Each structure stands twice: as C-alpha cells, then as structure tokens.
C-alpha cells in the first residue's frame, strides 16, 4: 500500500506529480490557515508530512499520530519541531541545509545595504515629490571599509562574510566554537568574543540557530554595547532578539538602525516595531527566490522518497 503524505503548503506541480507516483498525497494550499483540529486530523492519517518552518510540530500533536514516521521540513532551522518528542515517537526528521546559504546571505546584504542607504525611505521620498533640489536630501552610512560582526558562523554566516570581503569590509565573527585557523584565514574572519564584537562592529548580523541557549541573546544589555552609529540585521530567527529592547534602542537613538527579516511571533509583528524609527522590515524572505524554493522543496520531497522507498 502506498504511504500517505500530507503536504502543508502549495508545492510546484512537477514535484507534486513526482510524489504522486509513489505516494497517496493529501495536499493543502496553506495548513497555517486551517483550524488546528483539521490539520491534526491530516497528521493523524499521514505516514509522512512535508512542512515548512511555518508549521510547528509539538509533542502534544505527536501523541495522536500513530502512523507518522517521517517529517520532512523545507528549510534548515528545526526550532519549530519538538525533536525530543520526535525521537521518542520514532519519527524521523529531515531538513534542507546548504541550499539556503547563498540566497539568505544575499538577503542579509540586501537588508544591510537597504538600511545603511535608506533605500525604502529614498523611494518614498521620490514618489512623494519631495526631491526638489539636485543635492541629495538624505545621507547614508558607508558600508565599504566598515566592520561587520557576524553572530553565528555556519553556512549562511560564512557566505555573508564572503560578500562582506567583496565590499572591502573587515569581518569579525562569534559563535560557540571557533573555526580552525586555516578556515578563518580563508574567510578572512577574526574570531571575537560577543561583547567585543558588539562594541567594535558598525554592522552586526545575527545568523545563529534558535534554541533555548540563544533565546533573546541580543537584549538591552547587548544593544547597549553597540556604538550609536551601528546597525543590526537579523536573518536568523525572531526569538534570538528581544524585540522590545530593540524598539527602545531605536526610539532612543541608541543605535542608528536595524533591519529584520524574522520575528518572534511570525506573521504577527510586535506593534512597537511598526512604529520604531530607522527600521527596515521584510517578511521572512531569506530563502525566498523561485529557484531556491524549488530546490528546497524538491530536496524535502526526495528525503521522503528515500525514506519510504529505499
Ligand atoms: C525558511 C528558513 O525555510 O531555512 C530556514 O530555516 O528560515 C527559511 O529558509 C523558508 O523561509 C520557508 O520555509
């Protein structure tokens, strides 16, 4: 008998038809829009599921999923899944590492440049007919030859470093484990304790995985270490940053600006962030290019195929 695979969001037609050759597929355009009980019923009937980082899987949900043997998640972060409960329930979990590194690093740079040169504000100004004199009406902040501090130096963090070198920036990084010297040299990156990194960086980019030890790792105390002219970018997970502390710092002009792609309670935005000055917001777009998303979903579908057929 074919395994039943529940899909939590719309996937490309070619990948869907590939899945249909070996599985009974139960599709949903967007499981996040379903009443929780309906999605639970789907989970209860499934042998495998294809989800994204926007479909949490809790220990409580797993107590009802007798048939479920595999969760294939589109994305690298696994903080939305209770991994301990999966292990206990013998549910195999897969993610899609690697493929997101380049696009997410590109987006981190889009945010960094967008914030430092006020791209969105400038667009608004032009459209509002407020460009009345040839002299530029707004001043940005230099990116070239400035210091970037990357917090979390895995696949994405390292790609951000490579881009930063192209901008003639000096690269500092922090994470729990220091890289071997040869790798640091290849990336032209200097290992720096977090408090020092915050004090010396003109741009701080957060790219750490989210787990209990990184929850609110950047809060009022850490933001207070940053220089007044510095900017913060978060392309990791909303929960690594205390959003109220960031709103305070921006309101009080204690840092120059910030750009966020991820939020603690997505897709609901802390209303203080919507009011905060010098803040650029995007809706979790790190890996959101058509080619990358296709590759990610295809990889996640292949994980299911391998698990159920090999
Ligand atoms: C998401 C991400 O997967 O890989 C991750 O952990 O956060 C993103 O790539 C994507 O935005 C939606 O599934």
Automatic annotation (TrEMBL):
<feature type="domain" description="D-isomer specific 2-hydroxyacid dehydrogenase catalytic">
    <location>
        <begin position="25"/>
        <end position="309"/>
    </location>
</feature>
<keyword id="KW-0560">Oxidoreductase</keyword>
<comment type="similarity">
    <text>Belongs to the D-isomer specific 2-hydroxyacid dehydrogenase family.</text>
</comment>
<keyword id="KW-0520">NAD</keyword>
<dbReference type="GO" id="GO:0051287">
    <property type="term" value="F:NAD binding"/>
</dbReference>
<dbReference type="Pfam" id="PF00389">
    <property type="entry name" value="2-Hacid_dh"/>
</dbReference>
<protein>
    <submittedName>
        <fullName>D-glycerate dehydrogenase</fullName>
    </submittedName>
</protein>
<dbReference type="GO" id="GO:0016618">
    <property type="term" value="F:hydroxypyruvate reductase [NAD(P)H] activity"/>
</dbReference>
<dbReference type="GO" id="GO:0030267">
    <property type="term" value="F:glyoxylate reductase (NADPH) activity"/>
</dbReference>
<dbReference type="InterPro" id="IPR006139">
    <property type="entry name" value="D-isomer_2_OHA_DH_cat_dom"/>
</dbReference>
<dbReference type="InterPro" id="IPR006140">
    <property type="entry name" value="D-isomer_DH_NAD-bd"/>
</dbReference>
<feature type="domain" description="D-isomer specific 2-hydroxyacid dehydrogenase NAD-binding">
    <location>
        <begin position="109"/>
        <end position="286"/>
    </location>
</feature>
<dbReference type="InterPro" id="IPR036291">
    <property type="entry name" value="NAD(P)-bd_dom_sf"/>
</dbReference>
<dbReference type="InterPro" id="IPR050223">
    <property type="entry name" value="D-isomer_2-hydroxyacid_DH"/>
</dbReference>
<dbReference type="Pfam" id="PF02826">
    <property type="entry name" value="2-Hacid_dh_C"/>
</dbReference>
<dbReference type="GO" id="GO:0005829">
    <property type="term" value="C:cytosol"/>
</dbReference>
